[in-house]
Amino acid sequence: QGGGASTITQQLARALLLSPEERAQRTYTRKTREIILAAEITRRYTKDEILELYLNEIYYGNLAYGIEAAAETYFGKTAKDLTLGEAAFLAGLPQSPAVYDIYTNPEVTLTRQQQVLVLMFELSQAENCIEVSNSEEKVCVDPLNATEAANQIKSYPFTPPTFGARYPHWVNYVRAELEKLYDAQTIYRSGFVVYTTIDPVLQDRAQQLVTEQVAAMIDSNAKNGALVSIRPSTGEILAMIGSPDFSNAAIAGQINMAISPTRQPGSSIKPITYVAAFEKGWTPSTWIWDVPTQFPDGANPPYEPRNYDGKFHGGMTLRTALANSFNIPAVKALEFVGIYDNPDTPEKEGMIGM
After folding, report:
1. Do 186 and 23 contact (CB within 8 A), yes or no?
2. Final residue of a structural domain among 233, 258, 283
3. Are 339 and 284 members of one domain?
4. Which of 26, 43, 239, 323 could form a disulfide with 203 if both were Cys (CB 3.0 to 4.6 A apart)?
5. Domain boundary residue, one of 258, 285, 309
6. Is residue 207 part of a domain?
7. What was the pLDDT predicted at 165?
8. How many structural domains is the chain composed of?
9. What is the pTM of this model?
10. Over the stretch 186-205, which tens digit does the pLDDT of each residue have?
């Protein structure tokens, strides 16, 4: 297997000169051919010409190829009219369009734009402003205009693109997984046909359940929810709901709550905690008390958990505590296990990235 980082010229060679079959390969042979073709491009074209070709061909996410299409897709303008903040935003996308997606992963994408601005500021300081191809005017980036550029994008009202897929969260998830394996040109310009494990009947039912449950809990200030259904024997995903309404900007509906790395696991961590307790000697029949309890928290006031229904339920077995997702017994189990004593338990149970 061959891999590793590619230069701009190598990426250009891959996009323009390799066949779809070659681009899909991850071998040393493909990498070697890519390097040879990149060397020939360097011999024939100037750096400015190579950069222009690159900017006009590279993928910026959300089906936007080339800087002009990207400027129109994200900001509704031509590339020549981009502000410093907008240009820095777009410059950060090609490295990983599936990750840096302002609609599904806004926090990471904004951080990426800020990183580009920091690099531009450092280069501007070192080179006494930045020279721009085909322009006599240099770009000077100082702390003030870099901050203004970051704030502009942070407050920019990005309009989600029209997305006609039947199951948009699932489609975006599959697309992101493909982009981890292949370059964008291979995926979107080679006529790929992708077969997935989703069950339309289960998916539609799951969407209905999430929508109904969130609506039923509106008085408890519940606004969002997610659901994933997995066949245990194979790991196949049969249904994935990322939010009650993909198009609802008020709840950031385009963010897939089922897989978002910025969201806490919530009660899904409770079974893992109990498994760790079982490994230390507890059983499903172990008796535990669901009563008002305070837990020391260092110099902070004691932590006093509450159940979702606001009630205390007295003595019960661990089986009952888990079945009802009571919080106080779960925290007691975590105290028994030790927060740092079983850090690999989630991984052993197949849960990663927590």
Report:
1. yes
2. 258
3. yes
4. 239
5. 258
6. yes
7. 77
8. 2
9. 0.55
10. 777 666 788 999 999 999 99
Per the structure, the complete domain to which residue 299 belongs is given by 266-348
Residues 6+ apart with CB under 8 A from 201: none
Residue 346: is its pLDDT beyond 60? Answer: no
| Per-residue pLDDT reduced to its tens digit, 36-56 | 999 999 999 998 889 888 888
What torsion, rounded to 10 degrees, do the Cα atoms 61, 64, 70, 72 define?
Answer: -130
Mind listing the pLDDT tens digit for each residue in 235-270? 999 999 999 998 888 888 888 998 876 666 677 788
CA atoms 43, 48, 51, 56: torsion sign: negative
Which residues, in sequence order, are bridge partners of residue 316? Answer: 288
Contacts for 293 with CB less than 8 Å, ≥ 6 apart: 304, 305, 328, 331, 332
Alpha helices in the chain (DSSP H): 8-17, 20-24, 28-44, 47-57, 67-75, 84-91, 106-127, 143-154, 168-181, 184-188, 200-216, 270-279, 318-323, 327-337, 345-348
Q: What is the CA radius of gyration of the chain?
A: 25
Amino acid sitting at position 292: P
Residue 179 domain-assigned (yes or no) = yes
Both 172 and 252 in one domain: the answer is yes
Tens digit of each residue's pLDDT (9 = 90 or more) over 7-20: 889 888 887 888 77
CATH of the domain at 338: 3.40.710.10
Amino acid at 121: F
- Residue 321, in any domain of the structure: yes
Q: How much is the average pLDDT of 141-147?
A: 92
Amino acid, res. 55 = L
Phi, psi angle pair for 47, to nearest 5°: -60, -40
For 204-224, the pLDDT digits (tens) are 999 999 999 999 988 888 899
Q: Which H or E run includes 236?
A: strand 236-241
Query: What burial letters (b/e) apply to 181-215, b meaning 16+ CB within 10 Å?
Result: ebbbbbbbeeeeeeeeebbeeebeebbeebeeebe
Among 18-22, 119-123, 156-160, 162-166, top mean pLDDT goes to 119-123
Evaluate whether residue 87 is within a structural domain: no
- For residue 337, give Cα distances in angstroms to 121, 298, 330: 48, 18, 10
280: which strand partners? none
